[in-house]
Design brief:
By secondary structure, the protein is mostly helical. It has a domain at 2-62. It has 12 helices and no strands. The longest helix has 21 residues, at 109-129. The protein starts with a helix and ends in a 6-residue tail after the last helix. The relative contact order is 0.04.
Amino acid sequence: MKRFFNGCGRYRQSLCLLAGGALPEPEKDEIENHLAACADCRKYYEEIKTVTVPLTNWAEHFANLQPGQAVQTRWARAVQAAGGPEPVRRLTPLMAFCGWWHDMIWPCRRTWAGLAAVWVVILAGNYSLQDHSPSLAAKSPPRSQEMLMSFKDQQKILAEVLTDHAVPREAVRRELLAPKPRTESVMVLAT
């Protein structure tokens, strides 16, 4: 992902080798052509060169220094440890988020900050344009009496639409409201 935002990342190792004088000839021409075209890589190359030039001439300046046995042993262990396989770390959600943050947000942080500022302005404008006064509810009290009358009218219309006009309405009402004899509603147990 980093190479997507930084196209020159693939040249960094070769630039370091070039500054140290250890880059093979076939790759040297390609890197020098890139240096001629890219100002960022030229700046990086100059910074690396200021560090590597004194290190390449270390034999002249420090020929009389010899490391002790303890230092040589420590260096040998460090070189062996660096050459060995690295332990596999389990990817946690926090590590994934941090990696995403460094790949996506951090290189373009000013752009993201500008977008966040635009959203804040939009939300503030939207909030300020709304009428938040509690007097709006007090101005128009609910008209419960009118609502009930309208509901009853709608109920009558619905009942008329749903009723079967073949059966007279009064006959159905009398049948439903007619009292039933007690013998039909209570079972008598015979002993």
